[in-house]
Design brief:
The protein is mainly α. It has two domains: 2-103, no CATH class; 119-268, Tetracycline Repressor, domain 2, CATH 1.10.357. 63% of the residues lie in helices and 0% in strands. The protein has helices at residues 2-32, 49-59, 70-77, 81-88, 91-108, 117-134, 136-142, 161-174, 180-202, 211-219, 227-236, 241-264, 274-279. It is globular, with a radius of gyration of 23 Å. The chain starts with a helix and ends in a 16-residue tail after the last helix. 26% of the residues are buried.
């Protein structure tokens, strides 16, 4: 089912990109009498920031956002990379623009808060999950990059939809009655759970999608040597995106309810395990990309 959805997403992306390219061609011909190619200064009135970012967002249906370069977007639009630089200013504004448009779409699909906290978190998680599934390249980007995961580069008068998503997610978790420390912690954990599951789905990581291969490999193992593997052999290869995401949400709900009850009883947050954090590898700050490598 997940593979079929992925194929439908790729087909839809190709269709939408073709429509945008056709509209661009029509605009050029109407204004200049020339077809697509290297437009002159008078040819580019069809081009603007919104058009460029829209095309780039469509490309994330078939490619990771980190691979959506200025050169690739220019090729889709039939213009020179210099024009993309002119309208956006570089690779970072392109990436941020795509993330902001993605978050704008997510905000538009955000469900209203009604009913109990469990319902509110469930419908919110499902809405976020569906949006990330729709744009696999965005899921691939945020799973491995921090820049533009929250704040965006916006011009004066523009809306930073990343902050709006952040506010809405925090509000949903705060609605349970948590204090500030728990609200921030649990909201972050829920978002990571959603993104991780979405990325696993679009990358076809679920065992059920590789059932035949896994069944053959697991059946060849000696049950006496690997008794627990043999115990879960049949159930493991039936795991799929929908049932696993639902099961994960239910685990989160149970944990959140337990945490809320403990807070109401006056229990403090559990202390950080210093042994775990001390052994964690330190983050290495990556050098900034040069202008040449940013296209």
């Amino acid at each position: 089912m997940a593979r079929k959805a992925s194929e439908e997403t790729k087909s839809q992306a190709a269709t939408e990109t073709k429509k945008l390219r056709a509209a661009s061609t029509k605009a050029i011909v109407a204004k200049t009498g020339r077809g697509r190619g290297r437009p002159t200064g008078a040819d580019t009135s069809f081009l603007d920031k919104k058009t460029i970012v829209t095309v780039a967002l469509q490309l994330t249906k078939t490619a990771p956002l980190q691979d959506v370069s200025i050169v690739k977007v220019a090729k889709e639009l039939g213009v020179t990379p210099a024009l993309i630089h002119y309208y956006l200013g570089g690779r970072d504004p392109l990436t941020s623009g795509v993330m902001n448009m993605f978050y704008k779409e997510l905000v538009a699909s955000w469900p209203p808060e009604q009913g109990g906290w469990r319902h509110n978190i469930e419908v919110t998680a499902e809405a976020m999950y569906r949006t990330y599934i729709r744009y696999p390249g965005v899921a691939a980007y945020v799973i491995s990059h921090n820049r533009y995961r929250l704040f965006q580069e916006v011009a004066e008068g523009e809306t930073d939809y990343g902050v709006i998503v952040f506010e809405k997610m925090l509000s949903t978790v705060r609605g349970m009655g948590f204090d500030a420390a728990r609200t921030s912690m649990y909201a972050h954990l829920i978002v990571d759970f959603i993104i991780g599951n979405a990325h696993a789905t679009v990358r076809h990581r679920w065992p059920g999608e590789h059932k035949e291969f896994l069944d053959n490999k697991l059946a060849a193992l000696d049950p006496k040597e690997f008794p627990t593997v043999d115990f879960v052999r049949e159930s493991y290869t039936t795991l799929n995106a929908l049932t696993t995401f639902s099961a994960g949400l239910n685990l989160l709900f149970d944990a959140l309810e337990l945490a809320l009850n403990r807070m109401n009883l006056g229990d403090a947050l559990l202390p950080v395990d210093g042994h775990v954090t001390n052994e964690a590898p330190a983050a290495i700050k990556r050098p900034a990309l040069s202008r040449k490598s940013s296209v």
